[in-house]
Automatic annotation (TrEMBL):
This is GDSL-like Lipase/Acylhydrolase. Keywords: Hydrolase. GO terms for molecular function: hydrolase activity, acting on ester bonds. InterPro entries: GDSL, SGNH_hydro_sf. PROSITE patterns: PROKAR_LIPOPROTEIN. It comes from Pontibacter ummariensis.
Length: 447
């Protein structure tokens, strides 16, 4: 119960800064029960940024407190769960890595964001890692082992702790660059686990417009054979040869999130005030590999600020200023767009990885939360308690300002889906939460 008390005290003290809602109410079932099979005394969560509570382009205290594993741990307490330790940032360093907040919203798809840069947990006493500045250490044993940026492929690398600052933070100095994430998972000894890892084995590639860096093997699609081999090792460690229960989540269709579906051709034309505007994209290495953008091509959210930018372009007649994307001589770059052929490529590879996850889960008698099917089922929107949700950027209530990670309410909805799967498969009655007690996107105060 220590974790719960700490949560309340922190949010009460810093509520005006963190924009939190009241402590979520529990939607109790008649007879909460873990069933006959489940033991939540040492629940361990394995995953990446989505499991860490990453949102708004950063990891910070409020997001950690409302990560879906933290929500699950609260519910597991009702059926005998034990203490759940997270690598929380302190109140003084509550803004963690820094994150985006909404400064203004001129139109629903044109937010003005600003980076929070105070009360960070960024270390200045040591050089940064290749993956970014180092963060304040938290090396005591934790139940939430999530590491933003972690993939199945990188989980096998002993060198990854010297690359990723979120993983380095969890390791004693002597283990940095010598211990893999897989080895760290093997030490966790859970009595129940959730595993949601694999997104970055395709997401990193997709969010760079299907452009891989030849010098970085983690920037490409993870080969299916490698993925399957390492994922099997992870599941074997977590299940302890079939003795431990859990729930596995698969990889969502990355094209179903706002990062890929906000900057549409129609939105670009509306923003430019030109209904017939033509937008051009690069689709190959040759100068002539340029064509018009279509509705089947997905411009990345990260490219939005670049569209229409006045660039000086060298032409046979000398340098000319040409708006970025609005002329075939200055098209949107390959890494700013997931074109229609690349969309098919990403979808097909995601399916292959999910097939591997399903096979490994079945072999270990572990149920799968089909996040891929769930995300695709909500594309048209849905309602909970008369509140509408959708993958729409900002207004959809599910996704945070980075267009990829969820809001606290989105994480609460995911937590309830994990609970639904566990209840159905293990014949348990774990209570769900009232998701409306968790916040969505925080709008600027215009008073």
């Amino acid at each position: 119960m220590k974790k719960y008390i700490y949560k309340v005290s922190v949010l009460a003290l810093f509520g005006s800064v963190l924009f939190t809602s009241c402590e979520p109410e529990v939607d109790y079932e008649v007879n909460p029960s873990a069933g006959e099979e489940l033991d939540f005394s040492n629940y361990v969560a394995v995953g990446n940024s989505l499991t860490a509570g990453f949102q708004d382009g950063g990891l910070y205290l409020e997001g950690q407190l409302y990560s879906y594993p933290a929500i699950l741990a609260d519910q597991f307490e009702e059926v005998g769960g034990g203490e759940f330790v997270q690598p929380l940032f302190t109140a003084a360093q509550r803004n963690g890595s820094g994150y985006l907040r909404l400064a203004a919203l001129p139109t629903p798809t044109s937010p003005v964001t600003e980076r929070v840069t105070d009360n960070l947990a960024v270390r200045t006493d040591v050089p940064p890692l290749p993956g970014g500045p180092r963060l304040t250490k938290f090396t005591q044993p934790v139940n939430n082992l999530a590491v933003p940026g972690m993939s199945v492929l990188s989980s096998y690398s002993t060198q990854y702790g010297a690359i990723n600052p979120y993983f380095e933070r969890l390791l004693p100095d002597a283990e940095v660059g010598t211990k893999s994430y897989l080895q760290r998972v093997a030490e966790a000894d859970p009595t129940f686990f959730t595993l949601w890892l694999g997104n970055n084995d395709i997401l990193t590639y997709a969010t760079n417009g299907a452009v891989a860096d030849p010098a970085n093997p983690l920037s490409d699609k993870t080969p299916v054979v490698s993925f399957k081999t390492i994922y099997s090792l992870l599941v074997n460690e977590l299940t302890d040869g079939g003795e431990v229960e859990g729930v596995i989540a698969n990889i969502p269709d990355v094209t179903a999130v706002p990062f890929f579906n906000t900057v549409t051709l129609a939105a670009i034309r509306q923003g430019a005030g030109a209904p017939d505007l033509k937008v051009y994209i690069k689709v190959g290495p040759a100068p002539s590999d340029v064509r018009e953008l279509t509705a089947d091509d997905l411009v990345l959210l990260s490219a939005k600020a670049n569209i229409g930018r006045p660039d000086q372009v060298q032409t046979p007649n000398g340098p000319v200023v040409i708006p970025h994307g609005f002329n075939p001589a200055n098209p949107l770059n390959d890494n700013e767009v997931l074109d229609k052929d690349e969309v098919v490529e990403v979808k097909n590879h995601t399916k292959l990885l999910n097939d591997a996850i399903a096979e490994i889960a079945a072999a270990n008698n572990i149920p799968v939360f089909d996040v891929n099917a769930f995300f695709n089922s909500i594309k048209g929107g849905f309602k909970i308690d008369e509140v509408t949700y959708s993958p729409a950027f900002i207004s959809g209530n599910l996704f945070s300002l980075d267009g990829i990670h969820l809001t606290p309410r989105g994480y609460a909805i995911i937590a309830n889906e994990f609970i639904r799967v566990a209840n159905e498969y293990y014949n348990a009655s774990i209570p769900t939460v009232d998701v409306t007690q968790y916040r969505t996107v925080v709008f600027p105060n215009n008073n």
